[in-house]
Amino acid sequence: MDLGLSGKAVLVTGGSGLLGSAIVRRLATEGAVPIIHYRSRVAAAHALADDTGGFALQASLLVESEVDALIERAVESAGPLTGVVANAGGWPGPPVQTRNLTLERWRTTLDQNLTVAFLTARAYLKHVREVGHGSLVFVGSAAAHFGEDGYADYAAAKSAVTHGLVRTLAREIVESAPHGRVNAVSPTWVPPSAHAEAAAEQRLKRALATVPLGRPATSRDVASVVAWLLSDAVAGYVTGEVIQVTGGMSGKILPRPSGEG
Ligand SMILES: NC(=O)c1ccc[n+]([C@@H]2O[C@H](COP(=O)([O-])OP(=O)(O)OC[C@H]3O[C@@H](n4cnc5c(N)ncnc54)[C@H](OP(=O)(O)O)[C@@H]3O)[C@@H](O)[C@H]2O)c1
């Protein structure tokens, strides 16, 4: 199926990470020109750009001027942006029950996931206003829909993105671009490799307890839905939506009573 993305410039934030790189590669197979944003993975981002015929651009997505400049530099490199995938985000680390969650971690997690998404969207929407078209796809998380024990900060940040931001921006974008669209994907856990450690295997078992398809997501599962959502040709009448890439997950099993502090 032709997604109509050939020759189109698409920026992927966090484009050299686990999901970001799969999204970049998928877009490249559709003929798109990927712009790979990175923060610290310089070598990986440039190698991916070489592989895919794209461009690698560095920015901290928590510095307003850098985010605005990223969009400008992306346009200078590849021309008007057909879409942006706001994929960059940060997993907060070990689980912490909310009664013990520090304000510092709460703020960091909201910054890493919600503020980064907001600043990326704000910068891109200015460009959308100039060019009169655009498609924005956020990467959320299953945690936004089902909660995640030990991760109230992450679940709250991701649900703010996939619910509040997506629905509001889908309404606002059409003031600048009549056919502009804003959507999100919410993946379940994507294990980094097939060689999961013992602890990860335990986590996998728990994560899959309510998943009818019986396996975790792969980065390719996520990337193909992102590419589909970006495409006006196939998803041109889809906006304000969140697609769960969760194998049909219907919930999460409850934590053990003796769980983390
Ligand atoms: N992997 C999963 O199981 C999973 C499941 C559900 C949702 N997600 C979501 O999917 C997205 C990608 O996750 P991933 O697993 O691919 O993680 P990852 O490999 O760590 O990639 C995250 C990327 O975001 C970038 N980034 C984070 N904070 C940034 C900031 N403040 N400024 C600039 N760049 C920043 C990082 O850049 P550098 O590395 O260059 O520093 C990194 O490339 C995230 O939004 C995550 O929450 C992941």
TrEMBL record:
Superkingdom: Bacteria
Gene Ontology MF terms in the entry: oxidoreductase activity
Keyword set includes Lipid biosynthesis: no
InterPro entries cross-referenced by the UniProt entry: NAD(P)-bd_dom_sf, SDR_fam
Segments passing through the bilayer: none
E.C. designation(s): 1.1.1.-
Record keywords, A-Z: Oxidoreductase
Main EC class the enzyme belongs to: oxidoreductase
The keyword Oxidoreductase appears for this protein: yes
PANTHER family: DEHYDROGENASES, SHORT CHAIN, ESTRADIOL 17-BETA-DEHYDROGENASE 8-RELATED
Family membership: Belongs to the short-chain dehydrogenases/reductases (SDR) family.
Record protein name field: SDR family NAD(P)-dependent oxidoreductase
